[in-house]
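ASSEMBLY PREDICTION REQUEST
Request ID: AP-0331
Submitted by: J.K., bench scientist
Number of chains: two
Total residues: 733
Priority: normal
Notes: Please return the full assembly, not individual chains.
Input sequences:
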Amino acid sequence: MKLQLIGVNHKTAPVEVRESLAIPEWRLEEATRRLLEHPGVEECFVLSTCNRVEFTTSSEDGVDLRAFLGEYLAANGSAMEKHLYEYEDTHAVRHLFRVSASLDSMIVGEPQILGQVKQSYAIARAVGAVQSNLDTLLTRALSVGKRVRTETAIGSSAVSIASVAVELAKKIFGSLHGRNVYLVGAGKMSELAARHLRSHGAAAIFVANRTFERAVQMAAKVGGSAIPFERLYETADQADIVISSTGAPHAIFRREHGELFMQRRKNRPMFFIDIAVPRDVDQQIMQVDGIFVYDIDDLQQVVKSNASGREREAERAELLIEEEVIRYQRRLQSLDAVPAIIALQEHVEGIRQAEVERLRHRMGGFTLEQQAAIENLTRGLVKKILHPSITALKNASGGDQLTAMSELLHKLFGLELFASNGPNGKGNPEALSSMSPSEAERDQSSDPDNCASELAQKTNAGR
Amino acid sequence: MSLFWLRVAAGLYGISMVYGLIALLRRREILSRATLPIAAIALNLHFVALVEAFRSGSMASMPLHESESLLAFLMMFLFVAVYYLWGTTSPGIVVLPTAFLLTLSAALAQSAPRFASPLIRSGWIYTHVVLILAGYSALFFSLVASFLYLLHERSLKNKKLNGFAGKLPALETIDDIGYRLLLIGFPFMTLGLIAGSIIAQAQFGTAFMHDPKVVLSLLVWAVYIVLIYTRWSAGWRGRRAAVLAGIACVAALSAWAANYVSGMHRFIAR
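STATUS: Completed
Returned structure:
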């Protein structure tokens, strides 16, 4: 089996290229079908988000994915060429794991990608493009994504000014439902922050600005109400969160205002977000109990520390991914050992049955009790004797070891089946392709492919 | 058997405490998931221990150790209740060790001293003790909440968002917990004092008012009222609430320990 992946993402291609490649949701099914019809493709999977478009295929001997792209896009294949990346086998596995763990995202740790992978998987499955091989891989990729999310804190912190403002407000107020927001000054950034707060449940938004018309405009934009600047101090105590961004040369909110507000608010906390430079909120106000002030530097500091926290977590996540890739390879290998294991079991079971039959013949039949006892005894013996060999086969890592093991079994048990193990067996243990059963096995054993896929499906169902 | 269950409960509280405290130091929440189930099991066993002690009559005398056990039980009950209502285990940082030590002290008591006064056989005394201790537990929780509030407030003001304070619930949530528990605890405290007065009145006449324990209890009650009033009318929280709750708790603690100086509460016949 050969696993291939081709695509573009935000790192390799500018948005114009990604746009031209992007496949809208409603066309995803058709695209998947088209890819499935491409010569040589056995299974396939198409992922398209705003930051990436990727085509994954599983085939017998590899397919020309670039040709498919040229065909599918019907033109300018060469313009695309330099933005494309391709991965095969283990590298493709790792890439898919990293994508669904959001390590390959533009904002590392963002949560949408897992859902997008899941959706594309569902579509490919519905079309019949995902069967045993890709099914194993994709369900694994999804659970790796989930694992990274739960075991690392990669997605747990805010990394933009607006989201940090929301995060801080939540640390003070808990839920933002029913909280009032006051915009002092009508800048772009305060608009953004206000929108963010609103989307997290903030209730009323007041806007005050030196020029009243600007306040009215802004109020209309964010769905709030404009308040004349002269009435600022009368009304500010109604706000739980004040976002200040005026161009005033002096502080607008000083300690005495803070004390006044707190008195009127019965000491309910108040959160000032001061994104103006020079600052609108005097540092002295911090000495009033219940007033919290974060200026632009403080917010940026939080962003920075969150981002570096994410980086640290991303490193941990990468280790997790490596572990999962190795585990996945191991599993594929134990699947590859399945035909050998079955052959071995059948061989010994044949001997056992023949011996039991011989004994029955010699003794002129058994009583039911004897029959049961003999069956139990011989089965137990066979099982115990075979157990270490089967475990060794399952654990054999890489084609080389598997080949050596097979040869050894051939010598020990005289199994003709293992006599020839094709050149595949000598392949690079890193590559997944080397783990497929050789042609020789395929001819002689009883349909090993079916067996392997059955096993794969069983393990999938068990998950 | 009561003592056996109490000891098992004490051990489980200890384990729960260790898990809880470790969870506070770690980033991940996996360990803290063990804290609650273990605490809940311990709470049930503790309840069994209390019921058995009650039925065997050793509770009747309400010696110090039994009231320790009861107080710990009520605190743990509140701890679990707070978790179910607000989804936070953070009061555990103070409550778990306190409850553990109280239970441990009760569990290690070899034999309970007994008082043979017929008075204490009456149901009133149980009512009195349980109500008062429920009031104390709520008060203690409120103090813990104020303390956590202060901690969180300081970390937010100093812009130190990581570390322990980063794991606390939102400031307003902590405040809500503290205030509500005060409101819940107050009627218990009041009714407990009334029940106590009725017993004492019947037994000692008006002289009971001079007993040091009674005086302290009234002080606790008074501070309790001040706490609720200032929170309700002026929204006192954080530092000021912590100071008040601290005074109330010290008074409560003295009142509780005052059994040693209170002739009446040792049921010495006059």
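REVIEWER COMMENTS: The two ends of chain A are 23 Å apart (CA to CA).
SIGN-OFF: pending second reviewer
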